[in-house]
Amino acid sequence: MFSNCGSNTTKIVYSSYIDTLYQMGIDKYIGLEPTMETTQTEANNSTWEIYYYDPSSPARCFNGNQYIVSLHRGDPQKVMLYLEGGGACWDYSTCYNSVMAKSFANPVQIGGMLDTSNAANPFSDYSIIYASYCDGSVWSGDNDVVFTDTTTDVTATTYFHGLANLSAAITLMKQNFINPRSIIVAGSSAGGYGTFMGYFVVRTQYPFTRLNIINDSGVGLFNPTQTTLFQHILTTWNIKAIIPSDCLKCNQQMTYLVDWVLNYDTNVDFGFFSYYNDAIIGSVFLQMNTADFRNLLMSVTNDIHNAHPDNFKRFFVNGSMHTILELPSYYTTKINGTTMAQWTADMVTDTSAWHDLLQ
């Protein structure tokens, strides 16, 4: 842990790494404030504070709708940032015709690891910041684009404000939990993809806090036969600026950001969940057949696990379903007798029981 031990050289390298994150502008939207607050009580009797952001602020949905973040107060020393999923879009068709991305922000949706009333939930006592998804850019965009429907000439200004929305949630977290003992950044689907940027922004605000990143079904892959589309998406969302110049493979697959991070930051663990044949990511988003998707999934994650076996581990299972953290299957899906709930608990408690599990 860099805050307590290690050589001076190690500390200098880590300090330079944190400075690099600031120079990349990753914290540029920290400080965004909500304009209204309400409370709501869920069916499980958990109480949540709901924060609303003015639609004219940088925190907004891709179509201009109001942004929302929810907060549940538990143990102030144990904090979870959960990034909701909801698709992605990058042109008029995907944003407005085929509706591939969620365009409105709902308050918290309870289930799986977010159910604080479930005695089987290892995170039932956590404080939780639930960041609603509606930015269309997997929590990473920082760009306004005017799209035109080629068949009708209708135009739409589209706000890819994933970085701002993420920063609003993390600002709320920092204001309420100044110095927690540990932080989890978790997300499903688009929220899984969002855990990459989620790590970066959280790390700028908590440079020495122990972090655990739980990526559910958003492992950062792109179809290697569609490099033109990948580059178009990066440009449209304006996220090329956050791809480190010395991470050459990051221009091929976002997943390699984990490898780059772990070369500098060993005070973080990354846990990845996926179905081998995830139909939403593999077939719909990446347009890959099941064999090619599985081979890509294993090839890229093998590279990272082999380089960082202590800090990067997987829970990969057979099947074509999508996501687990917010579902009942979080408590029942097993590999070698270990449920996903137990695996994430082992990860966060940093025990020797946390293993790389491949079904």
Detail the topology: elements first, then pairings:
Blueprint: H1 8-23, E1 36-41, E2 47-53, E3 67-72, E4 75-83, H2 92-97, E5 126-131, E6 143-148, E7 155-160, H3 162-176, E8 182-188, H4 190-205, E9 210-216, H5 227-237, H6 256-262, E10 268-275, H7 279-285, H8 290-307, E11 312-317, E12 334-335, E13 338-339, H9 340-348, E14 357-358
Parallel strand pairs: 4-5, 4-8, 8-9, 9-10, 10-11, 11-14
Antiparallel strand pairs: 1-2, 2-3, 3-5, 6-7, 12-13
Number of helices: 9
Distance between the termini: 32 Å
- Can you identify the CATH class? Alpha Beta
- Could you spell the SSE succession in H and E letters? HEEEEHEEEHEHEHHEHHEEEHE
The proportion of residues forming helix, as a percent range, comes to 25-40%
Largest sheet: 10 strands, mixed
Q: What class, by secondary structure content? A: alpha/beta
Spatial order of strands in the largest sheet: 1-2-3-5-4-8-9-10-11-14
Query: What is the fold named in CATH at topology level?
Result: Rossmann fold
Radius of gyration: 19 Å
CATH architectural group: 3-Layer(aba) Sandwich
Overall geometry: globular
Produce a short descriptive summary.
It contains 9 helices and 14 strands.
Plain-language structure description:
Residues 1-5 have low confidence and may be disordered. The chain has helices at residues 8-23, 92-97, 162-176, 190-205, 227-237, 256-262, 279-285, 290-307, 340-348, and strands spanning 36-41, 47-53, 67-72, 75-83, 126-131, 143-148, 155-160, 182-188, 210-216, 268-275, 312-317, 334-335, 338-339, 357-358. The longest helix is centred in the last third of the chain and has 18 residues, at 290-307. The chain has a single domain, classed as 3-Layer(aba) Sandwich (Rossmann fold), CATH 3.40.50. Helix 3 (162-176) crosses helix 4 (190-205). Helix content is 29%, strand content 22%. With 359 residues, it is of the alpha/beta class.
